[in-house]
Design a protein that fits this description.
Blueprint (H helix, E strand, L loop, with lengths): L3 H11 L9 E2 L1 E2 L3 E9 L5 E10 L6 E3 L2 E13 L5 E13 L2 H5 L4 E10 L2 E11 L4 E11 L8 E2 L3 E8 L7 E2 L2 E5 L4 E3 L4 E8 L11 E10 L4 E11 L5 E7 L7 E11 L4 E12 L5 H4 L3 H11 L7 H9 L4 H14 L10 H16 L12 H9 L4 E5 L8 E6 L2 E6 L8 E5 L16
Parallel strand pairs: 15-21
Antiparallel strand pairs: 1-3, 2-10, 3-4, 4-8, 5-6, 6-7, 6-9, 9-10, 11-16, 12-14, 12-16, 13-14, 16-19, 17-18, 17-20, 20-21, 22-23, 23-24, 24-25
Helix pairs in contact: 1-6, 7-8
């Protein structure tokens, strides 16, 4: 089972460079999830909302007035590239329960939200939660890019994936435009169940005739590669004014478990302007192990990258690592020492070599195609890219005249030649001038 503390170790070594995926999960001894979404604010500002989800049973409760209460301080701080605070929000929450046994059973989620008005731009967000009675705390720092929604162009807010969405009987902290929109902060959704979302559209044109007084809204589910796997009928909708609020429901039956994107597209028939927004979601079958349920797909991917040392480690190190198979704690201790050993700046908090390693593996998985079930980082191109980095230059021949399609990657005076032997897009290493690599100067004359 993958342990949460393993991921804390990974994220600590990664530093801030790979904390760019929302939602995020805190470090420290108080665990919580955070997601965010941007909406049109006052004037030229943008309202960015932060959604916090934590398991209430983690908190310390004390008896008070016949019940048991806990208290926590929450804060969000936005800083610019110079470290200057440009917006912040802090608040205190008290929770109460009548029976502590309910907490011991687990499954008592607490959700909260706060909003900050800020100018569009790129910032760092620091989210902190402190248990005032239990002396426990957690924190999470993630970069956030605030879009410009204050211009006159047709625009859309971020999508909120909702764990529940209904007409509001009374105002609450999750009420938006007369609807109670409780965010799915983890973006983890049960496969087969309808997926609900909320979006706002801004700066709709007035329109001169009946047709131009409408807008068209369509939506779809795409896989991680951007391929549509489910499309839903588009609707032509009468404009209620210069802005509109829409809720959508996407069926997820018939899909495989994994990461997808819910994507909306809107077209203003008056201004002829188009806008698109999407939000990632992890469709889970409900059969994952408890350890896997704690991690998002991206976090699991980062953990795999952290453990993938075959292209970097010596034969002696690999033998030691392989002997630790089945000993999760032993492997993690080994990996921590290994990454410290290859850190070019051990006196700093950031391990640049680890960050570069994960960047390379991400690139390979995103852009290289392998055989069925093969990740891009596991292909021959992926192995070379991860081991040696991006090439200085690439020569491509996909014409198919006389030879099979090939690519030559140049690293200074060395070259790596990859050939698509079966014309299926699967490139294999057929020659290299780098010492220790496959050397076959006659590769052009050979027929496979």
């Amino acid at each position: 089972m993958i342990r949460w503390m393993e991921m804390v170790a990974v994220f600590c070594l990664l530093g801030a460079a790979h904390a760019d995926e929302w939602p995020g999960k805190s470090g420290g001894d108080l665990r919580f999830f955070v997601d965010q979404a941007a909406f049109k604010g006052s004037g030229v500002t943008t309202l960015v909302e932060f959604y916090v989800l934590l398991e209430a049973s983690q908190l310390q409760y004390v008896p008070e007035g016949g019940q048991f209460v806990s208290e926590m301080d929450l804060s969000v701080e936005l800083t610019d590239s110079m470290g200057t605070t440009v917006g912040e929000s802090s608040w205190t929450r008290r929770l109460s329960v009548a029976d502590l046994s309910k907490l011991e059973e687990g499954g008592v989620p607490y959700r909260d939200v706060t909003g900050i008005q800020v100018a569009p731009g790129r910032y760092d967000a620091l989210i902190s939660v402190e248990d005032m009675f239990g002396d426990r705390s957690g924190a999470l720092r993630l970069p956030v890019e605030i879009p410009d929604l204050g211009s006159d162009r047709f625009a859309a807010s971020d999508l909120i994936l909702a764990s529940s969405l209904s007409k509001a009987d009374k105002e609450s902290k999750f009420t938006k435009s007369g609807l109670d929109v409780v965010p799915n902060t983890t973006r983890r959704h049960l496969l087969g169940q309808p997926l609900s979302a909320y979006v706002e559209l801004y700066n709709l044109s007035k329109g001169e005739d009946e047709r131009s007084k409408t807008f068209v809204l369509g939506y779809s589910l795409t896989d991680s590669g951007g391929v549509k796997v489910k499309s839903f009928p588009a609707s032509r909708i009468q404009k209620p004014g210069v802005s509109a609020v829409k809720t959508i429901t996407a069926e997820t039956e018939g899909l495989d478990p994994g990461r997808y994107f819910l994507e909306i597209e809107a077209f203003d028939t008056g201004s002829r302007q188009h806008v698109r927004q999407r939000r990632s979601v992890l469709l889970a079958s409900g059969q994952s192990s408890p350890g896997e349920e704690e991690l998002s797909e991206d976090q699991l991917r980062q953990l795999r990258y952290y453990r993938s040392i075959s292209t970097l480690a010596s034969k002696e190190d690999l033998k030691v690592y392989e002997k630790l198979t089945g000993d999760d704690q032993g492997q993690m201790r080994f990996l921590r020492q290994f990454w410290k050993k290859v850190d070019p700046t051990p006196g700093t908090d950031i391990n640049e070599r680890l960050i570069e390693h994960i960047r390379r593996m991400r690139h390979c998985d995103d852009y290289f195609s392998g055989r069925a079930g093969q990740l891009g980082s596991d292909t021959p191109m992926g192995r070379v890219y991860v081991q040696y980095g991006p090439p200085d230059d690439i020569e491509r021949d996909v014409s198919g005249t006389g030879t099979k399609p090939f690519e030559i990657w140049y690293y200074g005076r060395y070259e790596f030649v990859f050939q698509d032997r079966n014309a299926l897009g699967h490139y294999e290493l057929v020659h290299s001038t780098y010492p220790g690599e496959l050397n076959n100067p006659m590769w052009r004359a050979q027929t496979f």
